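# nightly structure sweep
# worker-07 picked up a monomer target from the shared queue
# config: single-sequence mode, recycle default, output format = structure tokens
# input follows
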Amino acid sequence: MSYGQDGPQWGPPQQPGTPTASWGAPPQPPKKKRLVPILIGVGAFIVTMGIIGAVTGGSKNDDGAASSPSAAPAATVASTPAAKPSSTPAAAAPTTTPPTTTPPKPDTVTYLVTGSASDITYGPAGTSLSGNVPLNVTKPLGSPSYYSISAQLQGSGHVTCKIEVNGKVISQAEATGSYNLAMCEIVQDFLSDDWVDANGG
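# output follows
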């Protein structure tokens, strides 16, 4: 006979360390055996959620690629009509040409002698150039204020002389007969700077 919580019990004495049988709820399984199915269930749940997340993320990427901002400009460009070239020609830019300045022609003096054979001397003051009939010589008009021609006939005949400044006749003379002399002379007026006939012609 042994004594338990509910009073004396009949039967063989219990061995130390042997669990006492109770007539209530069934014995609980060890805790370690319960953890295994729990861990398996949690692992399956995690794997399932990973697969669902991958599928959902892939569809979002596809939608995102379709609605990405890079596709919008392409559609805009395709729908924009091309600009028509203008039929009006562009106005040409005005061109400014610098004014051309023509350098002034130098003043010239021309000696002319025509007619019969004569002894001729000509030139500016202080010179004595010689020539033959016909004579046509043009020289630059220098600083001298006096120019002349002397044409003396070599016997009978007729001779004419002229002095021109820039093509304009300033002085002219003629001679006829034996050894007569035709004399042309010009001087520059000190007041007007114009060339005049020194013989008053």
